[in-house]
Predict the 3D structure of the following.
Amino acid sequence: MIRPILGDDREAWSELFRSYGVFYETDFSEEVLEKVWLVLLTAGSGIDAVVAENDEGTVVGFAHYRSHPDTFSGGRDWFLDDLYVHPDARGAGHATALIEHIADLARETGPAGTLRWITAADNERAQRVYDRVATKTTWVTYEVKL
């Protein structure tokens, strides 16, 4: 089941977010965890979150996403910032369900432009999921550290 993140999800989310950081070789400090958590729970902050629960009701994954005006369509574009499913829960469709849930929210909000995300080039397992639910683009990502 996919549902909005709730205040009671703090511990489960923290564990998953730390594991997500380890995957991307990032160690999130308590300060960063607290700041991100507060943003996720603050209405109108610009970033929202949903969680995936297994059949027992345990939170096994999350997705952070945001929406912004789209200059190509005049509608709204959506961006999936972070998606993570606990390794023990992978293969059960949680990642697909998280993506589809956000896509449905975007369609309901309408007019929606595009839901986009990036992933590491070596994240092949995730890319197998993404290849099933989305179209890989030819865009190249650049960044400037601030």
About this structure: Residues 2-133 form a domain with the Aminopeptidase fold (CATH 3.40.630.30). The longest helix spans residues 94-109. The mean pLDDT is 94.
